[in-house]
């Protein structure tokens, strides 16, 4: 399944940038003599953005548990899918159940990431349409967005909070409805990308660089990886007031023992992440089903906090005053 780069931007970096700024990058080569990459360092975008980071839970350990043969089989399946588009390779049916289950999780995650990235694109269309109606002669717009997928995680970034919280919430909820656990976070800060650089070496060897950096990247990643456990969408302290201003009902306080100087709230997935006839009760049911399939230590670490959070979401008083500035932009599509 191909990696998404919906912003249509390529990136490149140097080892110096990696050392000095903690650049997050993808770098690979299979050769004793790889081709060197000399960066152009063309910065693409530098404004303050809202950044969501969503990560699959359990994917790394599932890959590590594969036998050597299954590890190769899984990689081959993904490679074949990339070549064949969305068509399931014939070799899928000849693979072990472990490989098929992991492949199903991975490809479903990729499909849901495409939907999440499309939410940002739809919002951009809304912005352009609104601007066209209010100022027909205006050129361009001030909305920017980026979606970057690598392996089992995705960064969603935009200059407006609304599409980011919609896209990330829906991604986590939709995955859970398919019994795929994930966790995410939202932060505010810089999100800078550079032009990608890909050069081939001898045979199948290559060197590829795809860096992106910024305080938004660091805050979102840190909150997801170090914050409270569970299938949730956490809010970094850098943007909790913005979430409150967007929709006061969307802001849910964490339990006292989960709070820190870096986070104290999460997104109410009963408002952001569900559509149609789905509701928080359905998410609770899916989480409970998954919790019955895992060892007690995993249940206590991930699913008990999840179910506790969902109970707080379900208990939100809908009669309390609601202050919000969010639009009805989804109704246009």
Short description:
The protein is of the alpha+beta class. Helix content is 41%, strand content 17%.
Describe, in plain words, how this protein is organized in 3D.
The relative contact order is 0.16. Helix 3 runs parallel beside helix 4 (about 95-135). This protein has helices spanning about 15-20, 60-65, 70-85, 95-135, 160-175, 215-225, 240-245, 280-290, 295-315, and strands at about 45, 50-55, 145-150, 155-160, 180-190, 190-195, 195-200, 205-210, 210-215, 235, 250-255, 265. The chain has a seven-stranded mixed β-sheet with strand order 3-4-2-5-10-12-11, with helices on both faces. Strands 1-6-9 form a three-stranded antiparallel β-sheet. It has about 325 residues and is an alpha+beta fold.
Distance between the termini: 27 Å
Fold-level CATH name: Alpha-Beta Plaits
CA-based shape: globular
The helicity comes to 40-55%
Q: Given the structure, what is the number of helices?
A: 9
CATH homologous superfamily descriptor: Nucleotide cyclase, GGDEF domain
| Helix/strand order | HEEHHHEEHEEEEEHEHEEHH
Query: Main beta sheet: strand number and arrangement?
Result: 7 strands, mixed
What Rg do the Cα atoms give? Answer: 21 Å
Low-confidence stretches: 1-44
Total strand segments: 12
Structural class: alpha+beta
Strand order of the largest sheet: 3-4-2-5-10-12-11
Instruction: Give the overall average pLDDT.
Output: 81
Instruction: Give the amount of beta strand, in percent.
Output: 15-25%
Q: Please indicate the count of domains.
A: 1
Q: What's the level 1 CATH class?
A: Alpha Beta
CATH architecture annotation name = 2-Layer Sandwich
């Amino acid at each position: 399944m191909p990696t998404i780069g919906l912003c249509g931007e390529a990136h490149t970096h140097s080892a110096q940038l990696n050392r000095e700024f903690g650049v997050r990058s993808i770098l690979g080569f299979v050769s004793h003599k790889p081709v060197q990459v000399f960066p152009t360092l063309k910065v693409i975008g530098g404004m303050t953005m809202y950044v969501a980071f969503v990560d699959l839970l359990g994917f790394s350990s599932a890959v590590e548990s594969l036998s050597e043969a299954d590890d190769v089989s899984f990689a081959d399946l993904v490679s074949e899918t990339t070549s064949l588009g969305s068509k399931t390779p014939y070799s899928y049916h000849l693979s072990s159940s472990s490989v098929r289950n992991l492949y199903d999780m991975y490809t479903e995650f990729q499909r849901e990431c495409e939907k999440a990235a499309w939410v940002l694109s739809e919002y951009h269309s809304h912005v352009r349409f609104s601007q066209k109606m209010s100022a027909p002669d205006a050129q361009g717009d001030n909305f920017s967005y980026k979606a970057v997928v690598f392996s089992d995680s995705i960064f969603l970034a935009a200059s407006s909070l609304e599409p980011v919280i919609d896209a990330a919430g829906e991604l986590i909820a939709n995955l859970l409805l398919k019994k795929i656990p994930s966790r995410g976070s939202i932060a505010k800060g810089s999100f800078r990308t550079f032009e990608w650089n890909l050069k081939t070496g001898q045979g199948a060897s290559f060197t590829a660089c795809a860096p992106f950096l910024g305080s938004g990247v660091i805050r979102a990643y840190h909150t997801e990886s170090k914050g409270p456990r569970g299938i949730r969408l956490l809010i970094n302290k850098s943007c909790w007031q913005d979430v409150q201003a967007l929709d006061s009902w969307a802001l849910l306080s964490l339990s006292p023992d989960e709070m820190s100087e870096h986070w104290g709230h999460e997104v109410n997935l009963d408002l952001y992440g569900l559509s149609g006839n789905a509701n928080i009760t359905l998410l609770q049911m899916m989480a409970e089903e998954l919790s019955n399939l895992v060892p007690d230590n995993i249940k206590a670490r991930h699913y008990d906090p999840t179910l506790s959070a969902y109970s707080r979401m379900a208990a939100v008083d809908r009669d309390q005053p609601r202050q919000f500035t969010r639009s009805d932009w989804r109704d246009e599509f």
